[in-house]
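lol forgot to send this yesterday, sorry. struct tokens for the thing we talked abt
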């Protein structure tokens, strides 16, 4: 019953910025690792950034220094701040949250619906 909703995508010119948000709703649950993935036409989905429950982060080399992942545990939300955007950043971006429901025994990945990011020259 846990649902994940993304927002913040859009179209910008090269050098611009966007901030993506992803929030989980639908019950009492815990979230450990959160991440952002992207998929461009004709390419496989790739990990962009991830953040653990303790705040440790990991970034794809292509976005390191330009993107920042963060989380707000009280709001069950993960963010991706994207600066200095390049045309090659154009893709559909998906958030992923590892979720365990109240009294549950296992963690399950939950995905957002995807949001389009388009960067023009």
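and heres what i got for the seq, position by position
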């Amino acid at each position: 019953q846990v649902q994940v909703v993304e927002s913040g995508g859009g179209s910008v010119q090269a050098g611009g910025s966007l901030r993506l948000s992803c929030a989980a709703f639908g019950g009492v649950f815990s979230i450990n690792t959160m991440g952002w993935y992207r998929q461009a036409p004709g390419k496989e989905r790739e990990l962009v950034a991830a953040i653990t429950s303790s705040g440790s982060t990991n970034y794809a080399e292509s976005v390191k220094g330009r993107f920042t992942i963060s989380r707000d545990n009280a709001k069950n939300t993960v963010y991706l701040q994207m600066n200095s955007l390049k045309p090659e950043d154009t893709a559909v971006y998906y958030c992923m949250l590892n979720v365990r429901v109240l009294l549950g025994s296992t963690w399950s990945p939950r995905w957002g619906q995807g949001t389009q990011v388009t960067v023009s020259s």
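The chain has a mean pLDDT of 96. anyway ping me if u want another try
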